[in-house]
Design goal:
Helix 5 packs across helix 10. The termini are far apart. With about 300 residues, this protein is α+β, with helices and mostly antiparallel strands.
Amino acid sequence: MNDDAWSELRSQCDTIESGAELVTPLSERPFTVDSIEADRIVVRFGDSDETRPLWREQFGVFDDQLEGQAMAIDDLQPGVEPYAAVLTLSAAYTVDDDTIVNAPANATGGESPFLVPAAEARTPPERVHDDAVLLAHLIDRLEVDEPSALEGLATDSLTDYYVLASDVQRGADGIRTGARDELLERLGPDQELHGHFGTVRRTTRTRRQPKADETVLAALDDRGIPREWVLGVDSRKLDVVLSVTDLSADEVYDTTEDVYVQKIGVDEDEKYARLQGLANRLAELEDAEGEPLRDELEEIEERLEEALTAT
């Protein structure tokens, strides 16, 4: 790889936005650019925290192989995948029909199908954290201190309030499920585990589902129990009858309607931009003006810790 191409590739890696990551084309292992040296680009894999140098001379070999021809992504070897992902950041290469091609006219430097923007690269816990920060900021800004305060909100603010609350609930439920599975590995029968904020224990709920019709009916017959005692209307079969006859649904169904608000879209880019704005504002508080706020937060944490340890 000549000096100009190597310099351009290093420059593209240097301009990757903070928090963004690359993924290997086939195995889809996420990695980030850890450092950029004169003769190598060091990457760090997110699934193992392993660091690996990608050498300039190896980029040169790959570059020579692609000279005047395309390479199918499916043909990439595991060791070559990180090189391929990084190389597609170059202004000389692009991906077309699952192949990497040397096509400067169609390539855009810094863009790659294997580059994941920072907003999308966040882990589920990070997304919950960010959504909770946005929701807390919105509650504070709108002064939503009780349900009656919602009546005075503008419609767009109320919509944002609902969407963020929904995202926090959904995200928190996802990470709660992961924590539950891990706790079940640590909890024995009748055992309780205590944390600073609460206590958990193993609970067993029994759910019953009828066995196959033939099994159930045979058991009833063996004991002389009339089948009519358990036979009922099967709604699935009833729907089939409605679709092939002139029977009206009103004749066989009592219908009720539940009205609710459905979230049909989330602007993640706008949320992330607002979050970055909050981060910048928090960074500005690193001076003396922010010292009282930090002291207050530390005092609250100390009081909370003392109260919890005293119980």
